[in-house]
Amino acid sequence: MIEIRDLSRRYGPRTAVDGLTFTVAPGRVTGFLGPNGAGKSTTLRMILGLERPSGGRALVLGRPYRELREPLRRVGALLDAGAAHPGRSARSHLAAVAASNRLPAWRVAEVLDLTGLASAARRRVGSFSLGMKQRLGIAVALLGDPEVLLLDEPVNGLDPEGIHWIRTLMRELAADGRTVLVSSHLMSEMALTADHLIVIGQGRLITDTPTADFLAAAARSDVLVRSSAPERLARLLADQGASVRREDGNALAVTGLDPRTIGELAAAAGLGVHELAVRTASLEEAFMEITGTAVEYRATTTGATATAAGSTTGTAATTTTDGTHAS
Asked: Is 147 helix (H, G, I), strand (E, B) or coil?
């Protein structure tokens, strides 16, 4: 596992990481989230011994990374997809890394095949697209078949097939008992991939919790009801202690009552219900809510942009009364 204890990093008067403490356990995908400037990359670099902490410690498999013997067999990392000589072929780059870490040459062919780069193995890295460079960086991380993986923005530049592949790969590695820590700004992908979330802001820990608990605690949840008699239904539900808000058309947003109770009340009163669905906020909405006061680089918008943004709602996952899901 990865253990972070009171970890800090200062650059002169600026504190990039401020007393972080958390543990990344094996057997699950842990998402490492935070706004720009939150200290994620600095933390990852300290875990890998590329930055010296100003205080605290970062342990991998019980010891500092620099003390690991044959570290590529223990820890694989992707921090910079461009960290390969552009004049080398993908095969040559991997072969050099393998030779310098006393890894078997046959492993090069395995990771090229695993990452989908076998057909491009002889091409120069300088001719690669961003997505292909990402695949090569992931191949390097996997070269030693490590117990621990640290991936910084692994889906950056990947096409839909590549995103599905890396998502499946991370979950399979975690299911195999490995420790997987992934940093990403792509909230929709983290919602599908991460079992656990560590969120930081301005160098400090905001939350360390299972993804499902994070969504339940940080985001709104209500029931969307569409009825042929919205006014009458709204009064009926309000009389039962529910909070009811009118939305566009004949829709009601209801909190305080579950879908089954709403449906039974409407049926008993003879009121037609056309739609009844639980709505929960997306991971992006929950993330924005919980990190709102920890954003260091906050952009401004023009009046037109702000108006458009204000009228746009996030995608909500819904559950109908028959148990099916939609978005």
From this structure: coil
CA distance linking residue 288 with residue 193, whole number of Å: 19
The domain spans of the chain are 2-216, 221-280+297-326
Tell me the C-alpha distance between 16 and 13, whole Å.
Answer: 10
CA angle centred on 82, ends 78 and 86, rounded to 5°:
135
Q: What is the CATH number of domain 221-280+297-326?
A: 3.30.70
β-pairing verdict for 243-246 and 196-201: unpaired
Burial (CB count <10 Å: 0-12, 13-18, 19+), residue 141: buried
Instruction: Classify domain 2-216 at the CATH topology level.
Output: Rossmann fold (3.40.50)
Query: pLDDT by residue (tens digit) across 150-200?
Result: 999 998 888 999 999 999 999 999 999 999 999 988 777 888 889 999 989
Is-contact 200 206, C-beta < 8 A? Answer: yes
Could you tell me the two tokens for 182?
Answer: 């992934």
Contact 281, 214 (CB under 8 A): no
This prediction's pTM: 0.74
> Residues 193-220: pLDDT tens digits?
899 999 898 899 988 989 888 877 765 6
- Measured from the Cβ of residue 227, the count of other Cβ atoms closer than 10 Å reads 22
